[in-house]
Amino acid sequence: MKSAEEIKESVKKKYGEISKQSRSENATVSCGATGCCDTVDYAIFAEDYSTQIGYTSEADLGLGCGLPTEHAKLKPGDTVVDLGSGAGNDCFVARQIVGDNGHVIGIDMTKEMNVKARINAEKLNYSNVEFKLGDIENIPLDEGIADVVVSNCVMNLVPDKEKAFSETYRITKPGGHFSISDVVISGELPDQIKEDAELYAGCVAGAIDKEEYLSVIEQAGFKNVTVQKSKKITVPDEILLKTLTEDELQEFKKSETGIFSITVYGVK
Length: 268
Fold this sequence. Notes:
The chain is an alpha/beta fold. The protein is built from 12 helices and 7 strands. It has helices at about 5-20, 25-30, 35-45, 70, 90-100, 110-125, 160-170, 190-195, 195-200, 210-220, 235-240, 245-255, and strands at about 80-85, 105-110, 130-135, 145-150, 170-185, 225-235, 260-265. The longest helix is centred in the N-terminal third of the chain and has 15 residues, at about 5-20.
């Protein structure tokens, strides 16, 4: 199994490559660019943001697995932190809701994504949206800064999820809350999938059991943890066959392991 640092470097490399492409290119890129399996993953997971107020097509690379801002109970004047902000998509939707008196901060560990997000913010002339380079396991923000924390298909990429949610709790104001979309598992993934770097970066291999995921959130200190939305994901055979043999694939199907996109809410 790769070390935590090796996993992070794989994710940084891949998302750095993706930052140079549009959503349509990410969905249709051929094998050998960023990798076939991961691009099909995004097409499977991605939700349609186009009806959301504040939607900015240049910032939507189709990398999410939910619409956390839709469920985040944002209010005018809120300070919002987006963990794994990418090109800024959720930040710009949040900014439209919190308005001129709000503040939106995007955190991402991939330099190229931060650059792209800042360029997008400048085009929109948003002075109260900022993007910081940082690791979600060590968020570069003060304690109790956020009224609301959002994140979209990112926590599954973090090796130390306990530390990530502990940091999420630290930066949330007392009485504040989070709404996070992510990928979880019901059952057990084969070791071959867990050890596949592309499937990790593609939001599959890093996912953990749903009940374990919710337990990690509660152990971090959050209360009233609830699943706001759940959707089952079917990963095509051609993706899995890049990692599994035909026999292993059939065994995996018989196991009835389920892969789900969920949006989770919790209060500090």
